[in-house]
TrEMBL record:
This is Testis-expressed protein 11. InterPro entries: TEX11. PANTHER family: TESTIS-EXPRESSED PROTEIN 11. One of its GO terms (cellular component) is central element. It comes from the Eukaryota. It comes from Holothuria leucospilota (Black long sea cucumber). One of its GO terms (biological process) is synaptonemal complex assembly.
Length: 300
């Protein structure tokens, strides 16, 4: 067992060898006995084996081998989780078991996602967000994993990020930096590159923008990252300009006005953007007024 463990550590540069030796180590541990100490060692080996197996799957170019390895990850996770529950049922269970379970959840989530098991991953995600040991960081990680190719679960990622956002807002004090990153991810999912023809996506993004703005405007959250405010401002502006290019002046004014409100919260970057944005916004507003005047004149 010790030799297998040491070989796994020595060959950590190779995920395939690491997977093989940690799996062997787990098998040797299972032969020693079923006491808590042996089970804990077996659990640790299986967690390490699952991690290495997952990394091997990520690196594989051959799709058939990749899928087979992902199935192995699920089997390793299942075996490890069974052992975890055996340990948790004893008086000798430790807090380290909780961290192991978090890792197992992430490994299982990624494997299911990359295997394309939509129904299973939806159910699994729903269970995870209500689990006692899940935390906001785990949910954020799952949201990112859900968008990794080849299977990108956009709707699921948005659901998970929405949960993460709600958890952030309920914390005291709010971790504004992490909260800003969740807003960033949600808005990016809703708008993409900004050339968004999806009115539902724009409406969703609009709500997130205003939610973020309310936090930015709060006197107690002056530490909202300026680069994130700049990103929000630019994203809103580009969305408005896209509307301008497609003749949707009302949409243009709405989004550009939001961008101007965000501009007011910049510090070091404000002078770089304000003159050009102000001039263009006045031009757009004037054109909007001219259009309204023409519409009035056309009325019988």
């Amino acid at each position: 067992m010790k030799i297998a463990w040491n070989l796994a550590i020595e060959n950590s540069a190779s995920s395939e060898l690491t997977h093989m030796f940690f799996s062997l180590c787990a098998e040797f541990c299972s032969l020693i006995g079923q006491d808590v100490g042996s089970l804990s060692r077996q659990k640790t080996c299986l967690v390490m084996a699952a991690a290495a197996c997952l990394q091997t799957a990520r690196d594989k170019m051959d799709q058939q081998n990749k899928l087979a390895l992902l199935e192995q990850v699920l089997q390793l996770v299942k075996t490890c989780r069974d052992i975890y529950h055996q340990i948790s049922g004893s008086e000798a269970a430790t807090n380290n078991s909780d961290r192991a379970l978090v890792l197992l959840n992430l490994y299982e989530f990624e494997a299911l996602a990359k295997l394309g098991r939509t129904a299973e991953i939806d159910l699994f995600a729903k269970q995870i967000v209500t689990d006692k040991i899940s935390d906001v960081k785990t949910v954020e990680t799952m949201a990112a994993l859900a968008m990794e190719p080849p299977c990108q679960y956009k709707a699921l990622s948005k659901k998970l990020l929405t949960v993460a956002l709600e958890w952030h807002k309920m914390s005291a004090p709010i971790d504004v930096t992490r909260c800003s990153k969740v807003f960033h991810s949600l808005i990016q999912l809703c708008l993409g590159d900004g050339n968004c023809n999806d009115s539902e996506g724009r409406d969703e993004a609009w709500n997130y923008f205003n939610d973020a703005l309310s936090i930015i405007q709060s006197a107690e959250h002056l530490d909202y990252p300026e680069m994130e405010i700049l990103w929000l401002m630019t994203k809103a502006w580009n969305t408005g300009i896209y509307g301008y290019g497609t003749g949707k002046l009302d949409q243009t004014v709405k989004w550009c006005r939001l961008s101007m409100r965000l501009l007011n919260h910049l510090t070091s970057f404000k002078d770089n953007y304000q003159p050009k944005m102000q001039a263009l916004f006045e031009e757009i507003s004037a054109k909007m007024e001219d259009t309204d005047t023409l519409d009035v004149k056309k009325e019988p």
